[in-house]
Every structure is written in C-alpha cells, then in structure tokens.
Amino acid sequence: MQIRLEKIDPSKRQQRFYVMHIAQTLFGEWCLIREWGRIGTKGGQRLVNYVASRAEAEAALYKRAAQKGRRGYQLRETLRTF
Fold first, then answer.
1. Neighbours of 7 (CB within 10 A)
2. Once rounded to an integer, what is the mean pLDDT over residues 48-75?
3. Where are the alpha helices (DSSP H) in the chain?
4. Among 30, 33, 39, 44, which residue carries the largest CB count within 10 Å?
5. Terminal CA-to-CA distance of the chain, rounded, Å?
6. What pLDDT, in 10s, does the model give residues 8-44?
7. What φ, ψ does residue 58 adopt, rounded to 5°?
8. Which residues pair with 9 in a beta bridge?
9. Do 73 and 7 meet the contact criterion of CB atoms below 8 Å apart?
10. In angstroms, what CA-CA distances link 25 with 36, 38, 46?
C-alpha cells in the first residue's frame, strides 16, 4: 500500500510532499517507509521503521496520514499493491 500526501500553500511558498508505503523485506520483516521533501526537487528525506506485522505497519501508516492531514496535507494518491 502506498499513500501520497501534498501540502501546497502559495502564500507561504510551500510545496511539500509526503509519501508512505508498506513493504516486506527479504527476511519477512514488515516496514513502513516514509519519504518527504519539496515538490519538484531531487532528494529529500527517507526513514524506514521496522514493525512486527503487516497489521502494525498499516496502523502506523494510517496514524501518520491522519497526523499529516491535521497539519494541512491533502491526499493525492492511494495505491494498493497487495
């Protein structure tokens, strides 16, 4: 599963993105991968959090998406990959 959020506010010159997706490693561990930065630039930040199960990873993804929604980010894209 992948979620892309964006925050665009021309008055503050903000053009930000926040992408999260869930993946399974080669060793069977589940992880939540978060990437964020400025729209239109190369690079940005990336953080990987390892969790015990897929359900825990999905819960963390939805919790983080709700937090970002409260900060002004809007949902742009949702992909279900499983």
1. 17
2. 95
3. 54-70
4. 30
5. 7
6. 999 999 999 999 999 999 999 999 999 999 998 887 8
7. -65, -40
8. 14
9. yes
10. 21, 28, 16
List phi, psi (to 5°) of 23.
-145, 160
Q: Chain centroid to CA 15: how far?
A: 16
Q: Give the chain's mean pLDDT.
A: 92
Torsion, CA 18, CA 67, CA 3, CA 77, rounded to 10:
-90
Structure tokens at 4: 């892309």
Q: Output the CA–CA distances (angstroms, integers) from residue 68 to 26, 27, 45, 52, 71, in the order listed.
A: 30, 30, 16, 23, 5
